[in-house]
Each structure stands twice: as structure tokens, then as C-alpha cells.
Amino acid sequence: MDRPHHTFGRVVGYHGCDLKVAKKLLTHKLEISSSENEYDWLGDGAYFWVDSAQRGIEWAIWKAEQGEIKNPCVVGAFIHLGHCFSLFDFGAMDDITSAHKRLQALFKASKEPLPKNELKKDGVYLKRFLDCAVINMMHFLRAEESKPEYDTVIGIFEEGPAAFRGAGFKKKTHIQVAVRNQNCIIGYFQVRGYEIFK
Predict the structure, then answer these.
(1) Does the residue 164 lie in any domain?
(2) By percentage, how much of the chain surpasses pLDDT 70?
(3) Which of 41, 10, 175, 176 is nearest to 117 (CA)?
(4) Which domain holds residue 69?
(5) CB 98 within 8 A of CB 137
(6) Residue 4 lies inside a defined structural domain of this protein
């Protein structure tokens, strides 16, 4: 059985980036790039933090500290999730485990080692090589079976130390969405407090 359609409405997402990129996004001179890092936990797509401009700007500042961008900033986006693969959905792991089995078989046949999640911090893997490969395999299998493509993938990422001693909550937990279909991005906007054009 295929996954049921989600019941979410539109979401507001925030994307941390360099000032030059932000200006082009806001003036519609650029389509946002799809991230295709082998460790992206939701697979290929343009990544946004849902309802968290603060997390978006913090990420951009961290990227600037790594020397990967020059002028950190954040832009907001209205996103229609379209046909969404939701990791909130109780049955979603059935699709994930099926994709994992297929991936495992392919790597076994090629006698190559299966990718592994790495960089475990505070009990959570931050570089999700295996998870990314599994999500991308799921998309491949859907295409192979002529099933409708997912426009977006959404999930909760637990991150950071415990919020307090004995807590099950982590300080940097957030919701992210990976947009695979650019048409789901309705438009961009400046974030109050982080204005680019004044």
C-alpha cells in the first residue's frame, strides 16, 4: 500500500545562506540549489528549518566560521509540501526498511561496504551517510515502480545535549524539510530582524 497523503497545510521554512544567494532568492534571480551531500539525512533536496529562523541563522554563522560562506544570513520561504514523505507518519518506516533491504542487497552484490552514519554526538549521528542513501533509494524504487514522486520529505531531527538532566528532549531538536520539487516553494521573504534590503 502506498503512503497516504499528509494533512499538513503550507509551512514556513528558513534557509541559512550567504548574503549574495539571499539577495538573488529574494529577487527571483536564482533557484535554490538542491543539496546532494552524501550525508544529508533527508536525502537530496533544498533544506529548510521549519518555523525556526534562529536555527537558520545559527547554521549560516557556523558555515561562515568554517569559511564556506562570507556573509551569513537567513531567508524565509512559504512552502506547499505537495506529495510529502512524512517521517512523522507511523507507517513511514515500512518504506524506509524496504529501501534499506534493497540497498543492502545492491552493496552486497557489488562487494562494497554499505555506507555508515558517522560523527555521533550527544547520542545522535550528525553525518547520515546510510540514512541519506536509504532515502534516495526509496525515491529510486518509487520511480522504478512508476509511483508518483515525492515533492518533499519532512522529519524531526533530534540534536544537541539533553535539555536538562534526565530529559528525553534535546536542546537543538528541530523540524526540517527537504524540497525536491522547486514548484513547492511559493515564494521567499525577508525575516524580521535579519533584513537584507532596508
Answers:
(1) yes
(2) 96
(3) 41
(4) 11-190
(5) no
(6) no
DSSP label at 173? -
Q: 154 pairs with which residues across the strands?
A: 86, 177
Backbone angles phi, psi at 134, to 5 degrees: -70, -45
Angstrom distance (rounded) from CA 86 to CA 93: 10
Number of domains, the chain: 1
Residue 191: CB atoms within 10 Å? 19
Q: What is the largest CA-CA distance in the chain?
A: 57
**pLDDT, tens digit (0-9, with 9 covering 90-100), for 100-137:** 999 999 999 999 999 999 998 888 888 999 999 999 99
In a domain, 154, yes or no: yes
151: cell is: 515533492
Residue type, 98: S
197 domain residue, yes or no: no
79, 13 contact by CB (below 8 A)? yes
